[in-house]
Amino acid sequence: MKDATAFRQEGWKDKPPPESAWRGRQGRTRKTITAEQDRAAGGREERYVRRKDGEYALGSITLKVLPSTRRIRAYLRWSEDGRSPTLYVGEVEHLTRVANLEQAWKIAQNRGMVEKRPGPEGSWASSSATRSVMRGNRSRDTAPELRIRSLLHQEGLRYRVSARPLPGVRRTADLVFSRARVAVFVDGCFWHGCADHCRPARTNSDFWRTKIEGNRARDAQTDQILADAGWRAIRIWEHEDPVRAARRVAAAVRGFAVQDDHSVP
Question: Which strand (E) or helix (H) includes residue 33?
């Protein structure tokens, strides 16, 4: 009995392989293409090519059909000195593009054509994967923040996003209600040391403990600065129920609005 690979290759002698085995879908975005390569390689940290100057460049796999043999060939490409060098990786033999990309990356990795990029000396991250995840954490427009903003907007409240409540002070709030003098901060559980969800890091523990303690101290200082200027700081943990959190913010803002209305003759 012939294996599936032999059957596929014999089937390609009389006609080219299906386009779905090598050609990408039309209209893909750069983000989609990057994600496809990352998944096939087993993670972005597995895609780096070491250049001649010792630096690292992110590689990509390109699939092409060789007309003379009707075989699918895989090539490794990256950017170097304003050019795009190309190295032949090998032939791939599956019926889907996903499977062929995975096979090509595995060949490149086994041949030492790509490698993990080492972290900078003294880096706070234990690995390049950790560093990528941490850098990918958003400082604004997080999912909890967007949900709370949406709920407040539905309530008819308007606000500034990612703004400084006090012009001369370098402190940025996620939401600012200028007339009500209310500043809202949506704090991540890890970065701001949530007692319920922040767990001690297993690697670089001293660094992360100092980092988080510093964030907490800065948060307390920010709240005091705002209070001294007549502002109210509202802090919301990312794990909080957004509906309840939005109600808390609305109550604070509307409390000002009620007082303001009563002050009008």
Answer: helix 30-41
